[in-house]
Amino acid sequence: ASKRSQLLGDDISSLVPWPPRSSLEFGAGAALPSMILLREGTDNVIITDQKVNDMTFEALDLSAEKNGEQWNVSDISQRVVICDHTWGEAIDELVKKSNSGGIDVLVASDCIYNPTYHDALLQSASGTICSESG
């Protein structure tokens, strides 16, 4: 099976362009899914987490840089955007960060453990996904 089928499942893998043009990860933490999407060739990787302190975003920036070097991925500074986002808040800035006007693939890994935040996460997700390809 292809990596795409393993990641998305056979039923929807044919509906999503691979590699996706753009991706957005909510609650990224260490951003492993975003790093894999970057390695797979996604042109616009947006990594978000709730702002606790600047060190979180500095660590994500360093991770993208070092992984990009290891994988011989070029143009990291043009392809990766790291920013804070609190679910349910304004998404205009997130959509602007997408080079394609919408996000092809949304990632929320280990984010749905607390039902209190489901509505806010869905609000952010529904406002950012590309209606054509997402």
Question: Your description of this structure?
Answer:
The protein has seven helices and four strands, in the order ααβαβααβαβα. By secondary structure, the protein is of the alpha/beta class. The two termini are 22 Å apart. The chain has a four-stranded parallel beta sheet. The radius of gyration is 14 Å and the shape is globular. The mean pLDDT is 84.
List keywords for this structure.
single chain, 134 residues, alpha/beta, 4-stranded parallel β-sheet, 7 helices
Mean pLDDT over the residues? 84
Biggest sheet strand order reads 3-2-1-4
Q: Which descriptor suits the 3D outline?
A: globular
Tally of separate helices: 7
Question: What's the layout of helices and strands?
Answer:
Blueprint: H1 3-8, H2 10-13, E1 22-25, H3 32-40, E2 44-49, H4 54-70, H5 76-79, E3 80-84, H6 92-96, E4 105-107, H7 118-128
Parallel strand pairs: 1-2, 1-4, 2-3
Short characterization:
With 134 residues, the chain is of the alpha/beta class. 42% of the residues lie in helices and 13% in strands.
